[in-house]
């Protein structure tokens, strides 16, 4: 559940515009190709961990290239996760601000919203000792995503004779530079590799269980992504903007609840990214490793297993 929710997030709302840029058939082919590469590499990471008897990227990289290169991989992971965490913070603020504007008729101060959300929700959740409890919020987040997808499909069925056929005809097949935007959006949508060693470890080092988990999660994500992208393009066609939610009526209460629900989903996905960044930072600094061993709570890190 955590891996599936880690994959399926706010990035799905940009995928319809990805199909608009790359067209339907090439765009779907690109989505399947990216999903295949990402899922197979996710399994490959676990295979390397098993073969080299490692539990982290740093250990694998050090065994392959030497101890002095461990800092390099921690830097890559930390930088990637840092910007991902920044993006999650911005997205949460956008979702909450839009929901408050539609439901309460007021626009909260953005800076205050970010500070309160970070201090009250994101950081406390990220400092939890065991993130397995997030599977319940991940389930709820997936229910919210399912609600959004079913809603778009229902509207697609209702409006299919008026707008959908022309939209699909106009964007069925054309090859131009827009396909690279489609590939970029799909790559971001299927990115969760920073958690591959941790998931493999949580599965007891069972490569078969890891592969089954990856296949199930990535297949679910691919199905939801493709259905949502096709329905979003069919509904709005040439008028489609980057975030498909912005195409809906801002006075629609159901859509405002979707904005709020996606904020909830992002908040409870954040710890999965934050923890990977924290582990990379701790792994690169001996002083932080010493603090982790002596004062795990004071160092804001999980207790050693």
UniProtKB/TrEMBL annotation:
Top-level division of the source organism's lineage: Eukaryota
Transmembrane regions: 24-48, 69-91, 140-158, 214-236, 256-277
Membrane topology annotation: Multi-pass membrane protein
InterPro entries: AA_transpt_TM
One Pfam match: Aa_trans
PANTHER family: AMINO ACID TRANSPORTER, TRANSMEMBRANE AMINO ACID TRANSPORTER FAMILY PROTEIN
Protein name: Sodium-coupled neutral amino acid transporter 7 (Solute carrier family 38 member 7)
